[in-house]
Amino acid sequence: xxxxxxxxxxxxxxxxxxxxxxxxxxxxxxxxxxxxxxxxxxxxxxxxxxxxxxxxxxxxxxxxxxxxxxxxxxxxxxxxxxxxxxxxxxxxxxxxxxxxxxxxxxxxxxxxxxxxxxxxxxxxxxxxxxxxxxxxxxxxxxxxxxxxxxxxxxxxxxxxxxxxxxxxxxxxxxxxxxxxxxxxxxxxxxxxxxxxxxxxxxxxxxxxxxxxxxxxxxxxxxxxxxxxxxxxxxxxxxxxxxxxxxxxxxxxxxxxxxxxxxxxxxxxxxxxxxxxxxxxxxxxxxxxxxxxxxxxxxxxxxxxxxxxxxxxxxxxxxxxxxxxxxxxxxxxxxxxxxxxxxxxxxxxxxxxxxxxxxxxxxxxxxxxxxxxxxxxxxxxxxxxxxxxxxxxxxxxxxxxxxxxxxxxxxxxxxxxxxxxxxxxxxxxxxxxxxxxxxxxxxxxxxxx
Length: 448
Description:
By secondary structure, this protein is mainly beta. It contains four helices and 19 strands.
């Protein structure tokens, strides 16, 4: 379903809506936080406005980030509806609406500057189903811990030893690669290379969702997860491939909770394996060498290929108000990017500080940095003039892409935050002949 609303008018209306919703008292929507829920209904709205300054570049091509000053915006609104149909069971449905205009047609960067910007975004508001999934929990003993009422989470309690099965339509990142201090671009860091492992080419449609199943086992301080999800039929497209036994994205994750100097933290190890019809960069180079012309991955997508990768994820509280995060990830880099972005190796880290020390306990300050890289075959392909889904300057003077992001999130009401964000990007699209680039953003987020 599509609603035709002009981008200029909708930006004003939707932003005003966020402010209005967030300024209402919480009592207008709910009583005190319940201890147990049979159902809940949550809502969020997020508006992001960005501006990119002009920058210098020795050359540009079809998939280059524009050298000119640009503006961009995105808007999402999501209803999260949950019920408990039986003991241990939870059923969730998320209708979502989104619209937006990306910078440079969403090309010219590996670490894109707005994690709320979907590849299907456009200036018309689109309504779709984001999630529809069932979660079943089997308690296996041990101490119990409280679970708060949140979007896609019913208030109650769970055993620290339990099995959880999730089946249906959702995002892989709803279950895997979580991090207390950096996981949600609606409230934390905006950049794609910071919100998850940069080289985690997780199965997803062009909006970031898929369907499949995940099984989790929790045993006190340990958690183990395994899941399989559907790949898109074509790279970075909306339609999903129903043949999940031949074309799929598998992942496995081990998590351990710990304490350092009395402060909680978690360490996670993730491995993923994708299998579908993908092109190999070396095949494209070989084809061009034999037949002439510029290498093109679209000419050699003729067989099923595998892609594997790994990631380590750390979150650690340093005090009651300060937490740090770090991620490192590596993919084999032999095959094309299929569902996320063009990063084959990445390292990132940063801190998140709550404003209690200056009397603004609901405010947050974030400082983060990411450094992204490419495999040899991937960089040779781009240097020869090849075009990826997101990258292609016509040639390449390779350097790692480095991103610095900082933001201040100001709590304007109990349920609304206004954030001011700055990103500084060196070597956009891994090209030392272009940039650096400055990005400025304002984000308004409301939830109840």
